[in-house]
TrEMBL record:
Domain of life: Bacteria
InterPro entries: AAA+_ATPase, ABC_transp_ATP-bind, ABC_transporter-like_ATP-bd, P-loop_NTPase
GO MF term set: ATP binding
Annotated transmembrane regions: none
Domain ABC transporter: 3-211
Protein family membership: Belongs to the ABC transporter superfamily.
Protein name: ATP-binding cassette domain-containing protein
Keywords: ATP-binding, Nucleotide-binding, Transport
Short name of any one Pfam family annotated for the protein: ABC_tran
Length: 211
């Protein structure tokens, strides 16, 4: 069981190829790290793996099944299997929504009942914060809500793109512990992208293979 990108070439409209014939694999239940210089295409590869950016060539498959298309072109049942955490929780959330609504969003899409309070507790958010909007909480609290939103989706794979870069050391450590335990206990495959190779080593991430 794994999330695989094979022979991927990708770029953006109006740009030449940003990554060329790259392959990458995230095995279920393991924590894979990806470090590398700025601008080398890590986020681009992450977006391809998260089914958000359509590659110009190559194949993405989940547990051996090829996924065609990206975004809303992919069925919600398949999209649900891969969640992504971004560097900036503010850019990744709707400022008009409460944290409760943000956390509930993916579960509502796949019509799954979730108990928001339970998820909040799991990620270390106190229940009184659930009725606040993003501008009324800290970056760390908002990122915890984003982690809860990702977990509400019950994904098989989680892609974290510099997800702790804006947070303090204590919040970073607690989010890392949470993601580690999800990988271990729920068998989730996790890709952790960070410019901080020491952080990746500290959480025991296996170095991802990039040709
Ligand atoms: N939306 C976009 N439109 C056009 N070009 C983009 C876009 N996003 C990224 N790029 C370009 O693609 C290249 C790779 O960027 P990418 O963000 O994937 O690298 P990265 O390794 O994640 O960098 P960093 O560590 O700085 O986040 C860069 O040259 C960047 O300018």
């Amino acid at each position: 069981m794994s999330l695989d990108a094979v022979d991927i070439t990708a770029g953006y409209s109006g740009t030449s190829d940003v990554i060329v014939r790259e392959s990458f694999s995230i095995p279920a239940g393991s924590l894979v790290g990806l470090a590398g210089p700025s601008g080398s295409g890590k986020s681009t590869l992450a977006r391809v793996l998260a089914l958000l950016l359509e590659p110009r060539a190559g194949v993405v498959s989940i547990d051996g099944r090829e996924v065609k298309g990206v975004g809303l072109a992919v069925s919600s049942e398949i999209r649900r299997q891969v969640a992504m955490l971004f560097q900036s929780p503010r850019a990744a959330t709707d400022p008009r929504m409460t944290l409760r609504a943000i956390i509930e969003q993916p579960a509502a899409i796949v019509r799954r009942r979730i108990v928001v309070e339970e998820l909040a507790e799991r990620v270390g958010l106190t229940v009184d914060l659930l009725d606040r909007r993003p501008h009324q909480v800290s970056d760390g609290q908002l990122q915890r809500a984003c982690v809860a939103r990702a977990l509400a989706q019950e994904p098989q794979y989680l892609i974290c793109d510099e997800a702790t870069a804006m947070l303090d050391a204590a919040t970073t450590a607690s989010i890392m512990r949470l993601v580690q335990s999800e990988a271990r206990d729920a068998g989730m495959g996790v890709l952790m992208i960070s410019h901080d190779a020491e952080l990746l080593a500290a959480i025991g991430a296996v170095a991802g293979q990039r040709p």
